[in-house]
Amino acid sequence: MKNILIIGATGQIGSELTMTLRGIYGNDHVVCGYIPSAAPKGILLESGPAEICDVTDPEAIAAVVKKHNIDSIFNLAALLSVVAEGKPKLAWKIGIDGLWNVLEVARENGCAVFTPSSIGSFGPGTPPVKTPQDTVQRPRTIYGVSKVTTELLSDYYFIKYGVDTRSVRFPGLISYVTPPGGGTTDYAVDIYYSAVKGEKFICPIPQGVYMDMMYMPDALHACVQLMEADPAKLIHRNGFNIAAMSFEPGEIFAAIKAEKPDFEMEYQVDELKKSIATSWPDSLDDSCARAEWGWKPEYDLQKMTKHMLQKLSEKLL
Ligand code: AKB
Fold first, then answer.
1. Cα 290 from chain centroid?
2. 277: closest CA among 173, 205, 221?
3. DSSP E strands: which ranges in 72-225?
4. 143 in active site
5. From the CA of 54, how far away is ligand 1's center (Å)?
6. CA of 125 to the centre of ligand 1 (A)
7. What integer pLDDT is reported at residue 1 of this predicted model?
8. Which of 39, 77, 273, 310 has its CA 20 to 30 A from that of 85?
């Protein structure tokens, strides 16, 4: 990767990935691609190039790619699972029509492409514990349907046209810089904000419902490591199971309470989130990512909790 375009660079992943990649490849070599309603601010805007780059506008993507001599695109534009259920047509337009635009520009300009998949690409028929890399993918959400399609279309462009497409299936991502918006796993971010603000947390996910989660530094490392991996070692491409921790609400609550003994939580289950969460796996088997490109996470629930509470306290208090 020499010149990189990030589409959706102001979102939860993009805002941190842009800065991480600028740190590695140089500020001028990483373009922050955004839509006007989510314009970059502060360090994201000031530290390097920024361009309007709407994933639904193929000419705009092509113009930015040519102007900055881009060789790698991180395509992060997507609606998350809960929001997508309310706007399925828009979710498809951004997730799949947008992906098509990115892949066509990549094919014409020789770019590598990273487009995340998700644990949401699995469904109720998938083996739920230590879900294998290659298994049943019959999701019941439009988010999941678009993520399976993302994986298939990305593989298709690699097989048919040789576009260097690679991706991971992200679990719920926990971070303190930019909040997620509209996902099923958002509760695992929101709970830390409540704890630091000294508020009782109202938990929308039922007790006992496990989902895979990951701290953002590990997720960023996965993006860089996979895109830098030796292609000769990749048996899979789109997308790799990656895992770091799996917990249910009672366990994350207990981890926070160990640090903040006065913290309280009450369950008020959200039926849509419950139905999505219970259709997703409890935990993924990430052995292919470990074997093919050396994936290894650094953070477990306890280590992440200490770091999140410290960083959020610095930010909010
Ligand atoms: C969501 O909850 O929609 C996302 C995801 C797991 O892909 N965080």
1. 19
2. 205
3. 72-75, 112-114, 117-118, 165-166, 168-170, 172-174, 201-203, 211-215
4. yes
5. 21
6. 18
7. 83
8. 39
β partners of residue 118: 170
Per-residue pLDDT of the chain (317 residues; tens, 9 = 90+): 899 999 999 999 999 999 999 999 999 999 999 999 999 999 999 999 999 999 999 999 999 999 999 999 999 999 999 999 999 999 999 999 999 999 999 999 999 999 999 999 999 999 999 999 999 999 999 999 999 999 999 999 999 999 999 999 999 999 999 999 899 999 999 999 999 999 999 999 999 999 999 999 999 999 999 999 999 999 999 999 999 999 999 999 999 999 999 999 999 999 999 999 999 999 999 999 999 999 999 999 999 999 999 999 999 99
Contacts 24+ apart (CB under 8 A), 50-53: 50/9, 51/5, 53/5, 53/7
The residue nearest atom 1 of ligand 1, judged by CA position, is 183
Measured in angstroms, how far is the CA atom of residue 172 from the centroid of ligand 1? 5
* Three-state secondary structure call for residue 266: strand
φ, ψ of residue 72 to 5 degrees: the values are -140, 135
Residue nearest to atom 4 of ligand 1 (CA): 183
Helices vs strands, H then E, count in the chain: 13, 14
Residue nearest (by alpha carbon) to ligand 1 atom 8: 172
Pocket, ligand 1, Cβ cutoff 6 A = 80-81, 118-120, 143, 170-172, 180, 183-185
Q: Do the beta carbons of residue 302 and residue 255 sit within 8 Å? A: yes
Tell which one of 76, 79, 81 to mutate to probe ligand 1, the residue whose CB is within 8 A of the most ligand atoms: 81
Among residues 34, 143, 192, 215, the one annotated as catalytic is: 143
Cα atoms in the Cβ-side hemisphere of radius 13 Å centred on 64: 26
